[in-house]
Amino acid sequence: MKVRKALFIAAALLQTISVGAQLKDLVQYVNTLQGTDSHFGLSYGNTYATTAMPYAMHTWSAQTGANGEGWKYQYSVDKIRGFQQAHQCSPWVSDYAVYSFMPIEGTLEVNQEKRASKFSHSNEIAKPHYYKVTLDNGITTEMAPTTRGVHLRFSFPGNGDAYLVLDGYTDMSEVKIDPQKRQIIGWVNNQRFVNHAENFRSYFVVQFDKPFEAYGTWENQNDKTFPAEIYRQGKGAGVYLKFKKGAKVQAKAASSYISQQQAILTLNRELGSDKNLEQTKARGAETWNKLLNRVLVEGGTDEQIRTFYSCLFRANLFSRKFYERNENNEPYYYSPYDGKIYNGYMYTDNGFWDTFRTQFPLTNILHPTMQGRYMNALLDAHDQCGWLPSWSQPGETGGMIGNHAISLLADAWAKGIRTFNPDRALKAYAHEAMNKGPWGGANGRIFWKEYFQLGYVPYPESSGSTAQTVEYAYDDWCGYELARMTGNKFYMDVFERQMYNYRNVFDPTVGFMRGKDKDGKWQEPFDPFVWGGPYCEGNAWHYTWSVFHDVQGLIDLFGGAENMVSKMDSVFTVPNIIKPGTYGGIIHEMKEMELAGMGQYAQGNQPIQHMIYMYSYAGQPWKTQYWARQIMNRLYNSTEKGYPGDEDQGGMASWYVLSALGIYSVCPGTDEYVLGSPLFKKATITMEDGKMFVIEANNNSNDNIYVQSVKLNGNPLNKNYITYKDIVNGGTIEYTMGSQPNKGRGITKDAAPFSLSKN
Known about the structure:
Layout: H1 2-21, E1 59-63, E2 79-80, E3 82-86, E4 100-105, E5 117-127, E6 130-135, E7 140-145, E8 149-155, E9 162-167, E10 172-178, E11 183-188, E12 202-208, E13 214-219, E14 224-227, E15 231-235, E16 237-243, E17 248-256, H2 260-271, H3 277-292, E18 295-298, H4 302-314, E19 320-321, E20 324-325, E21 331-334, E22 341-343, E23 347-348, E24 350-351, H5 352-355, H6 359-366, H7 368-385, E25 391-392, H8 405-414, H9 422-433, H10 448-454, H11 465-485, H12 489-496, E26 506-507, E27 512-513, H13 540-543, H14 551-558, H15 561-573, H16 588-596, H17 621-635, H18 651-661, E28 663-664, E29 672-675, E30 682-686, E31 692-698, E32 706-712, E33 715-716, E34 721-723, H19 724-728, E35 731-738
Parallel strand pairs: 31-35
Antiparallel strand pairs: 1-3, 2-5, 3-4, 4-9, 5-6, 6-7, 7-8, 8-17, 9-16, 10-11, 10-15, 11-12, 12-17, 13-14, 13-16, 18-30, 19-23, 20-21, 21-22, 24-25, 26-27, 28-29, 29-34, 30-31, 32-33, 32-35
């Protein structure tokens, strides 16, 4: 037996080595411009030309928009005005800790408008590990990122004097030029959401491989230059450098939120041994290929593969690593919450309203170690500012609604990621649920007393009240479930009643979640097509389905599965009309729903994205399969118009990745993934520990979208879900696909995934 075991281990090791040696070049399929053809009134992703390492502290992007503008890179704009360090997770909250470079030839121009140069996308390469563009004036800029830095190269054609401008962006900055060392050091502090802005600094160091022929400082308030000056501090303080005509200049840059010394340490650690940009570029390609190869898909069209890996790239950018490594390679960080330095890990730049649904359930599969660190970071953030994060950038913004940090914590625990103290988490969440914080709608709870006393948030007292009620109810179930899993009877009792509060805003006479005033009267007049009012970025057609934890309870409210299925069917068949309601005009989410052409289904916004998977709770899983394919094929692609709305920190990209794999987490906080319709004939997910989960879809095609039968590790599976352990322990799920629905599979109640009311 020992010999057999040794042979098995040796075979497994050889397989691992073989897989490692046969990494496919998957970065070639990634288009980092996916979703960049967006603007204020219409989003095809609201992304920018991101070049970055996975979960990097700093990313880099070409800049077409003005300093401070949220739409930093728009595909439709034909001029570039800089190449900037970026952190932005949404154009709606802009960016922070930004500084930029712009190469210029001929006459020195520091003004961001005047220095801008036209370019063509045909002269642009945009990959995760490498960005290159040749401007119409002949200057070529290249960028190859590291986790906290970047390797740049500026190639001047030699038609005039060669300049490089460093722009200090929108707020205070400091710059120092050291001509002897061919170096610039400094800091910027532009930000919006740092709780102690007075001591926030993003320290940077830039090391050049060519001498400066001339240099000076400038400031972007009046675009005044100061020749030969080596130091300046002030609003928008920057630098200009002059190089030899026709120079090819390489620059290594790194940044730190802790100190100048740490920025230099990081530069030496991440870029010091790289003699040229090609080395940095090659290492970056290897990093991304290792990650992308962990989800290997086969058997799709070229466009499907490009869309999948472009989405998988974006699913692995957020949350950012906000920690650094000291001289002993130990993690530590500047806290954006209280302005102090701590040992350990911190993550930021994520809006949980967007990502608890998809991005974190995917990340729990791919990166459980990071997730374990993240959960403790959430609790550390609570200790540092008094509140659990809801949307950090990098400090707490309080954006959107709900208290979804508890979803992340409960989901991690349910999936076996148990690195944190659950009692500490529950205490933090209870404080969140029974108080209102100073930042935004999702920092604590608006009208929390009324929610506990009445069982709902009243309208019109609170804008978005019905949306708040259903999301609070789910969050309270997450609190209850974490308490139940960890044996905390006290908090089970606290949250048990509230997790059913969604019932209190469902009106059976109209079949919708609806606004209700403090006296218990329904909002009048009622029109399910009207946006706003008691809803947040949606209408009654969208929010009626926000009962992630108790789909059976929702079925019961409808009076049975047939009634609810009929209502879900009608989402796609009712008129595709827009009534702006309290928004007063058309917002981009409305326009995106209209363009999708699927009735009132709004894939471009989060509240309804899970609805199609609810068919699998109601005995008609073939409709889940049909609509999953329709949405993937009709609303996603790999181009600049690649998303049907805001991509939102990997949230929409993760929806596609999970759905393309044929799984979806309707209820984070359970260990279940609902089955859909796999897009590819084969997909292989490799876990952190090397175990593999293989998804095979026999006879799969664009016509054969319906599941005929399923086997899990060779055994027939009639359930409409699998568990987290099924995936991470490795194995094979085998689908047989066909062109017609199998209306005899997955139709029994015991085939349905978890619902509070039946379990």
